[in-house]
TrEMBL record, chain A:
GO terms for cellular component: plasma membrane. This is ABC transporter permease. Keywords: Cell membrane, Membrane, Transmembrane, Transmembrane helix. Signal peptide: none annotated. The chain crosses the membrane at residues 39-59, 110-130, 136-157, 169-188, 219-237, 267-287, 293-312, 319-336, 348-368.
Automatic annotation (TrEMBL), chain B:
Pfam families: ABC_tran. GO terms for molecular function: ATP binding; ATP hydrolysis activity. PROSITE patterns: ABC_TRANSPORTER_1 (PS00211), ABC_TRANSPORTER_2 (PS50893). It comes from Paenibacillus darwinianus. Transmembrane segments: none annotated. This is ABC transporter. InterPro entries: AAA+_ATPase, ABC_carbohydrate_import_ATPase, ABC_transporter-like_ATP-bd, ABC_transporter-like_CS, P-loop_NTPase. Keywords: ATP-binding, Nucleotide-binding, Repeat, Transport. Residues 7-243, 260-504 form the ABC transporter domain.
Amino acid sequence: MNQQTVPAPLASGETAAEAKTKRLPFRLEFDPSRPDSPWWITIVSVLLALAACGIFIAVNGMNPVTVYAKMLTGAFGSSFGLTETLVKTIPLLLCGLGVSIAYRISVWNIGAEGQFVAGAIAATAVTVYFPGLPAYAAIPAMLVSGVAAGGLWGLLTAIPRTFFQVNELITSLMLNYVALLVLNYVVFGPWKDPQGFNFPGTPVFTEAMSLPVLGGTRLHLGLAFALAAVALYALLIRYTRWGYEWRLIGANPEAARNAGIRLSRHIMFVMLLSGGLAGLAGMAEVSGVAHRLMYGISPGYGYTAIIVAWLARLNPAGLIISSFLFGGLIVGGYSVQTIGLPSSTSSMLQGAILFFLIAGGMIGKFRLRRNV
Amino acid sequence: MNEGYTVEMKQIVKQFGSVLANDRVDFRARAGEIHALLGENGAGKSTMMCMLSGVYRPTGGGIYLHGRQAGIRSPKDAMKLGVGMIFQSFRLVQSLTATENIILGESSPFWRGRGWMKTKLEEIRSLADRFGLAFPVDRPVWELSVGEQQRVEIVKTLYRGADIVILDEPTSVLTPGEAEQLFATLAHMKSEGKTVIITTHKLKEVMAVSDRISVMRKGRMIASMAKSETTERELARLMIGKQIPAARPAQARSIGKPLLTVKHLDVYAEHGRKALGDLSLQVNEGEIVGVAGVAGNGQKELAESLAGLRSWKRGTVAFDGMTFKTASVRAAMEAGISHVPENRMRSGLAGSLGIVDNLLFKSYRSPERSTLGFMRTARNRAWAQTLVEQFDVRTPGLDTPVRQLSGGNQQKLLFAREISRDPKLMVAVHPTQGLDIGAAQGVHRLLVELRETGRGVLLISEDLDEVLQLSNRILVIFGGAIVYETKGCEADRERIGLYMAGLTEEGEAV
């Protein structure tokens, strides 16, 4: 469109208020209808989060640059660090994918943590009650029960949401604590390893109950599950009818209802899927990494997954990148312990990143205008 | 010098990005007059008024109130200077009562005491009565009808001491009866010496209420004159810049077999309110049946029941040889009922999605659009392109979010989608609401075309002119039932108005 000329404003008779605005060369305008903020906002947000945390690190008497360098090399600088990072990526990717699917249709599932734990418990139940199963039966059985338990845990949120309009934020969060308490009960109580010197965990799994690993590393088959799930998700949202229906529900649920889409059915199904993916992550964690169910099996993967999903903007390729970065953040957090910083440094970074991401999304709706 | 003008806007320029919305516009209004700002959608009249009320700031030019330059930087500043605006979409808190909404933002003592709310209720009730604005002052706003909500908005501005009251398209949400009442209120405000400005594109209203008329077209002020100096036809010419052809009367033609038969329908709305009681109607092939009525008499529930969105307690809905047992959107769609909902952006289109996705809404399940659960993307895009061309939807591209299209193009898109499914019956609710004359005529043509090709149309509209102009048969809905039926060619405007108001010819309440 061609720019049209604007006549100069009246110079005479300015009020004090107008004169005041004149002194500032720019002003902010809020435009809530603006579409998604540009991609570089995400990067700037992450950098700002790093800078803000840098201040705290500096206050603690450390040079933030050294600390970040240490984290970077710890997480990505060696083959050990890299495989550890990938090991952490697996649950983050699966849980992040789970919540992304729910967020697509505006169902705010923050219960990935509980669904993860439910999956871990259910997978372990197979090892407890059928200890003699051979690998070809044990692994699939653990998979099925882990996914089913996670999915059912998700359904516990979806059912009250669809039938009684109960806010899913509250139920999914509350169910996290329920799952954690069930976990504590079984690892301190009936499933505790009798030979475990009172360690709150089940006996170590046999070879048949463990996921195959890559060479001598701790990297397990769960990575293949996670990548396959992401690929399926990408296909699903781009090319299928379900993907179209989810897009519609996410954009305008009322219009979707008018188009004959049964919202309640979709919410139930999506929550089943969302929980199932987190349950799969829980199964992979006990079977591939911990080789037992124990107290504190998840260091908050389900919560970090929410940040992973936001950082990726629910985009499949973005999910792979952001979960890898957050895996690195956790591993890097461990590595800075050696120079005297608490491992919660990485939690601080995680929190700061989410904070700046949300702020960045908000600021993206403002425009800086030159005052005329 | 200012000759008693309370509002003077001089050489106003407003630019949005590269779009020039107002180009050196002058506007003046006096106290004690009703000033109509006339123009098509997008002529820039709302933009002008938003600058007067502080929502936008002009790019250039000056605003003078009572002869003094006013530095209006926010709606709050405008309010302080006595300028209040009532927007098309109301600014009300749904869960608060009417009174609470009106006094919202007012500074009040921290401890209000026991009788405080009572005195406020009384104060507001008496203020409302003074201007003939009746509404339940102590009920939550969501319980009020649209017309009542508008009254709350008006009283809110009056309560805050506005002497310049702007109403943006005030009758677009009102029924003829409610509009009459509004005009009486405006006249009352005028007699109390207030400056009343209404923006509108309805010529009849302008001629009915205003003292002075300013006409805008494409961001410029075209003319300003006293009502006595002009005619409806001249205004129309000024507004659209060309002579409008007279509306084509609905021609009498042979009517086909019954298509939709609704018998004794009882529908309950939210909170157990009975929305439809013993409603019966019939639509035949090749006719447009117009349902006239004042808002809130069951029109929405009727349309939703037919579209399968709302279930009914009693009664039968028979369509094209089958009977619907329960409400099912899918069943209604597959049977060939198309639904153009009341609020296109809320329930008809998904604003953030592109043209293709919006066109696919109802047909994506068909084998031409998807196979084995996979969308046939390339083919769907080509199909969307042909529809866009066929229905002349003006859009920068197939992936443009539809909320960026103008209202007329959005409605064309919606009709393209509905008509492409080859419906047997179209249920259209307020299909021209908020559209300018050109776009509305386009919609009317499409409805007539459906009739000419042997489809049935159930036109539910609050625009009585539209109903009279298009319908073969006219039904009047009141209190959830059809109270009057007449042939389109024999329709008597006044009699219909009486039935819409719930009165029989003898003047008794039904």
